[in-house]
Design a protein that fits this description.
By secondary structure, the chain is of the alpha+beta class. It is built from 19 helices and 22 strands. The two termini are about 40 Å apart. Iron/sulfur cluster binds next to loops.
Length: about 575
C-alpha cells in the first residue's frame, strides 16, 4: 500500500496519549515542578510532574524492597529520585570525577552507576536533595538536561581513543549532536538552579516545538572496527567512514530500538537500517535533525508502545522514509560506503594510542562503582582522579577507561590500580562476566518484573562451571539480562539474552551474533534458575561437540536451534 502523509500522521488531536497533553500544557517543561518541590508533606511530586521531570534527567522512584513494610506502618512509599547525567560520549575530567564522587556520597546511595549508554546515574536522592545535587553538578559543568524523556538523550560514541588516530575528531560529533538536539526551554535553570526567567523569554523551539518527540530518541556514533556502542540499537546510528586516516563522512542508520512489551505482538526489537552516506559535517547534522523532525511529525502520539522511530519507519516503508528525509534535507544521500565491524567488547587492560598516550580499561561489574569488601573500587578511582593524571571515559558496556595518560604518569596510575586490587580484579575476572551486562531492575526500577544487576553476578558464578565442563571458559560469549522486556541492557543484541517475565523467571533468547548485527530470538519462556542452567548446559554440550572451527556460540545457536540448518 502506498504511503500518504495523512495516513501516517497518527497524532489525531482527540486521540493523544496523556503524556502528550502533559507536554503541551507544561509551559516549556515547567509544569508545577516548583510547587511539587515545595510540598513538604510528601516525598513524591505531582503526577503530571513525574512525566516532566524525566525531561530534566530524573525519574521518581521508590524503594520497592520496602513497599510492604512502609504500607504496614501506614507510611507512604519511600520515594526518591534517580538523576542521570548528560555526558556526550561519556567523558569526564578527573576534577569532575572527584566532584561526582562527593556528590554521590552526600546526596545519593553513594553508588556511582555507569550506564549502558555511557553516562552516570545516581539513585536514592530525596526530593529535598534534588536541587543541591543539580547545583553541585552545575558547578562541575555537568547537567542532566534531556537525559530522559521524549527527546534526544545522551549521545554515544565509540569509547576507546586508541582504536583510531582520529577518534578525537569523531568524538566531538557526540557533543555537537547533543547540543543540536537540546530543548530550548530554560526551565531546567529556573526550576533547579533558581535562575530568574529571562526578560525577553525567547524559547521558540523549532525542533521540539511544544510537543517534543513522541517517544525517547537515541543516537550513537560507531568508529569501525568497533561496535562497542551497539550502533544498530539506536534510533539513529552513525558509522564513521575513515579512509587513509581521514574522516570521509558517515553512513546513517535509522530505526533501531529494542524495547518490546510482553503479550503485545505489535511490539518488536529492531536493528537500524543503513540508509546511505553523507560526506560533510553540515550534511550529517542536517540529516540527524531532519530524521528527528520526521519522527516529530509522523510518530505515533496515541500509543506510546508504538511510538519509537522504528515503528514510524516500518509504517512508512524504508524507501518512503528515505525520500522524505532527502526532501527535508534538500540533498540526496550517497550510496552506503563499505565498513566492517570486528569487535564489540571492551579492550581490558593497558593500550597505547598513536601519540603514545596510555589507556587502562577496568572491569566494573554491571557498571556499579562502590567500595566492596576486598574491592574498594570507588576509593581507588578517587585516588586516580586526585592525581589529575587520567581522564575518565565510560564505555557502552558499563566499564571505565582511565585515559590520556602520559608515559611518565603510567607508573603512578598502575601503582594505584595494583594497590587496591583493581588490576588483579580486571585480569582475573572470567570472560563471560566481562562480556555480560544487566540493567538496574530491583530495587529501584518501577517497571522491573525480575531482578537484573543484583542477580546476574551470582547466576554467572553458576554458569562458569558449566562453561569449564565443556572447555568453553575462554569463549567471549555475550550474556545480557534485564528485569523486563524494555531491554535497557540490550539483551536482544546478545548471544544469550535473559529477559525477566516474573520474579525469578526469564525468557531465554539465543542466536544473536557477536558484533551486534543480528538480533537473537526467543528460545524458551519463563525459565527459573534451575531451568536456565539446565538449558544452557544442554546447549553448551552440543555447541562444544558440533561447532565448526571458531564458530561463535551465537552463530551456532542461530543455525542449530533457531533455523535448524545445521546438518
Ligand atoms: C519502553 C522502553 C523503556 C523504558 C520504559 C525504560 C525505562 C527505564 C527506567 C525506568 C530506568 C531506570 C531504572 C533505574 O534506574 O532504577 C531505565 C534505565 C536505563 N535504561 Fe531504559 N527503558 C526502556 C528501554 C531502554 C532501552 C531499549 C535502552 C537501551 C538499549 C535503555 C537504556 C537504559 C539505560 C542505559 C538505563 C540506565 C541504567 C542501566 O544502564 O541499566 N532503556 N530505563
Ligand atoms: S529493562 Fe526494565 S527492569 Fe531493567 S531498567 Fe529497564 S525498564 Fe527497568
Amino acid at each position: 500500500m502506498a504511503w500518504a502523509a495523512n495516513e501516517i500522521t497518527m497524532s489525531k488531536k482527540d486521540n493523544l496519549s496523556a503524556v502528550e497533553r502533559i507536554k503541551t500544557a507544561s509551559e516549556g517543561l515547567r509544569g508545577t515542578l516548583k510547587e511539587s518541590l515545595r510540598d513538604a508533606v510528601t516525598g513524591a511530586i505531582r503526577e503530571d510532574d513525574q512525566s516532566l521531570v524525566k525531561f530534566h534527567g530524573m525519574y521518581q522512584q521508590d524503594d520497592r524492597d520496602r513497599r510492604e513494610e512502609r504500607s504496614q506502618k501506614k507510611l507512604e512509599w519511600l520515594y526518591f529520585f534517580m538523576i542521570r547525567l548528560r555526558i556526550p560520549g561519556g567523558f569526564l575530567k578527573p576534577e569532575q570525577w572527584i566532584d561526582l564522587h562527593h556528590i554521590a556520597g552526600e546526596h545519593s546511595t553513594g553508588v556511582i552507576k555507569i550506564t549502558t549508554r555511557q553516562t552516570v546515574q545516581l539513585h536514592g536522592i530525596l526530593k529535598s536533595h534534588i536541587k543541591p545535587t543539580i547545583k553541585a553538578f552545575n558547578i562541575s559543568h555537568l547537567d542532566s538536561i534531556a537525559a530522559c524523556g521524549d527527546v534526544n538523550r545522551n549521545v554515544l560514541c565509540s569509547a576507546h581513543p586508541a582504536q583510531s588516530a582520529i577518534h578525537e575528531e569523531i568524538f566531538r560529533y557526540a557533543d555537537k549532536i547533543s547540543t543540536l538536539a537540546l530543548p530550548k526551554s530554560r526551565a531546567y535553570y529556573e526550576v533547579w538552579l533558581d535562575e530568574e526567567p529571562l526578560a525577553d523569554k525567547q524559547e521558540d523551539d523549532p525542533l521540539y516545538q511544544d510537543r517534543y518527540l513522541p517517544r525517547k530518541f537515541k543516537i550513537a556514533i560507531a568508529i569501525p572496527p568497533d561496535n562497542d556502542i551497539d550502533v544498530f540499537t539506536n534510533d539513529i546510528g552513525l558509522i564513521a567512514i575513515i579512509e587513509n586516516n581521514e574522516l570521509k563522512g558517515f553512513n546513517i542508520a535509522a530505526g533501531g530500538g529494542l524495547s518490546t512489551t510482553h503479550g503485545n505482538a505489535a511490539t518488536y526489537a529492531r536493528l537500524g537500517t543503513v540508509l546511505g552516506f553523507v560526506n560533510s559535517e553540515e550534511k550529517v547534522l542536517k540529516a540527524v535533525y531532519e530524521i528527528m523532525t520526521i519522527q516529530r511529525d509522523h510518530g505515533n502520539r496515541s500509543d506510546r508502545k508504538l511510538a519509537r522511530l522504528k515503528y514510524t519507519i516500518d509504517r512508512m516503508g524504508v524507501n518512503v522514509f528515505k525520500e522524505e528525509l532527502e526532501k527535508r534535507c534538500g540533498f540526496e544521500l550517497e550510496n552506503t560506503r563499505p565498513y566492517r565491524f570486528t569487535e564489540r567488547k571492551d579492550y581490558y587492560g593497558w593500550q597505547q594510542n598513536h601519540e603514545g598516550k596510555w589507556y587502562y580499561t577496568l572491569f566494573v561489574e554491571n557498571g556499579r562503582v562502590l567500595d566492596e569488601k576486598g574491592l574498594p573500587l570507588k576509593t581507588a578511582l578517587l585516588e586516580v582522579a586526585k592525581t589529575g593524571k587520567a581522564n575518565f571515559r565510560f564505555t557502552g558496556n558499563q566499564n571505565v577507561i582511565l585515559s590520556d595518560i602520559a608515559e611518565t604518569d603510567k607508573p603512578v596510575i598502575e601503582a594505584i590500580l595494583s594497590k587496591f586490587g583493581i588490576s588483579d580484579h580486571t585480569n582475573n575476572t572470567g570472560i563471560l562476566r566481562k562480556n555480560s551486562m544487566a540493567c538496574v531492575a530491583f530495587n529501584t526500577c518501577p517497571l522491573a518484573l525480575a531482578e537484573g544487576q543484583r542477580y546476574l553476578p551470582s547466576l554467572i558464578s553458576k554458569i562458569e562451571p558449566l562453561l569449564e565442563k565443556y572447555t568453553l571458559q575462554d569463549e567471549p560469549i555475550t550474556l545480557r539480562m534485564t528485569g523486563c522486556p524494555n531491554g535497557c541492557a540490550r539483551p536482544y543484541a546478545a548471544e544469550i539474552g535473559l529477559v525477566g517475565t516474573a520474579y525469578g523467571q526469564y525468557n531465554l533468547h539465543i542466536g544473536g551474533d557477536r558484533l551486534g548485527e543480528r538480533l537473537n530470538t526467543k528460545f524458551k519462556e519463563n525459565l527459573d534458575e534451575e531451568q536456565i542452567l539446565q538449558t544452557l548446559e544442554e546447549l553448551f554440550a552440543v555447541y562444544s561437540r558440533e561447532r565448526k572451527g571458531d564458530e561463535t556460540f551465537g552463530d551456532f545457536s542461530n543455525k542449530k536451534w533457531i533455523h535448524n540448518t545445521v546438518i
